[in-house]
Amino acid sequence: GIQVEQSPPDLILQEGANSTLRCNFSDSVNNLQWFHQNPWGQLINLFYIPSGTKQNGRLSATTVATERYSLLYISSSQTTDSGVYFCALDDMRFGAGTRLTVKP
Amino acid sequence: EADIYQTPRYLVIGTGKKITLECSQTMGHDKMYWYQQDPGMELHLIHYSYGVNSTEKGDLSSESTVSRIRTEHFPLTLESARPSHTSQYLCASSEYSLTGWITDTQYFGPGTRLTVL
Questions:
Q1: CA of A42, closest CA in chain B: separation in Å?
Q2: Which end of chain A is more exposed for a tag (fewer CB within 10 A), N or C?
Q3: Mean pLDDT in residue range B53-78
Q4: A contact residues 75-104, partner B, Cβ 8 Å cutoff
Q5: Which residues on adjacent β-strands are paired with residue A4?
Q6: Which residue among B88, B90, B102 sits closest to A90, beta carbon to beta carbon?
Q7: How far B105 CA lies from chain A's nearest CA (Å)?
Q8: Which domain, by its residues, includes A35?
Q9: What is the spatial distance between Cα A77 and Cα B36, in angstroms, rounded to a whole number?
Q10: How many domains are there within chain A?
Q11: What's the CATH number where A43 sits?
């Protein structure tokens, strides 16, 4: 199956900082999603982005399918952004996640 | 806001018991999924379904079963619980198109935290 690799595994930021999370995959995909899992365990879909760029407030994502990677940008981070960010591919294979901690 | 529900939210049981975790969604989604997740770790697909009377196995399916008799309901059963089953179980749903696995966003329930003593 497709291999998914997320980086960095852990990220600690001060409130207000910007960050970039990366998802690499080993083969072409038809579908890619980014999720945020909050500290209480609830998973929320952030972007459905098999290709191109999307933006939603302080978050944006870009998938370059030909290069087999996707990036999630978080600008002006807030403490509520803390949690684990996962990317998932079209066979519902999840990466190991990036654990983000935003300090006040 | 997604309308997908899981019960119970927390369950503590003894080894060898048979348990059923419930999942329901009111969005009319055809595709539903069960995942197992240890705290802070990646999700592992257990089972999924394309629609009524459809069930498929994922990576961790060997010790559990599912059924899909109604579109909105997708229960997961562990025939004989073991301490190794202690984990969080997440149910999800999405729309499904014949052109691919997922055509729209995937919505997750709040999860069931299972502890097997």
A1: 5
A2: C
A3: 92
A4: 84, 86, 88, 90-97, 99
A5: A25
A6: B102
A7: 6
A8: 4-103
A9: 29
A10: 1
A11: 2.60.40.10
Nearest CA in chain A to B89: A41
Which residues lie below 8 Å from residue A101, measured CB to CB, with a gap of 6+?
A10, A11, A12, A13, A82
pLDDT single digits (tens) A69-90 = 999 999 999 999 999 999 998 7
- Chain B within 8 Å of A48 (Cβ-Cβ)? yes
pLDDT in tens, A14-47: 999 999 999 999 988 888 999 999 988 899 989 9
User: Which domains, ranges and CATH numbers included, belong to chain B?
Assistant: 8-111 (2.60.40.10)
Taking the C-alpha atoms of residue B58 and residue A88, their distance in angstroms, rounded to an integer, is: 15
- The single-letter code of the amino acid at B54 is S
CB contact under 8 Å between A92 and B101, yes or no, is yes
Q: How many CB atoms lie within 10 A of CB B58?
A: 18
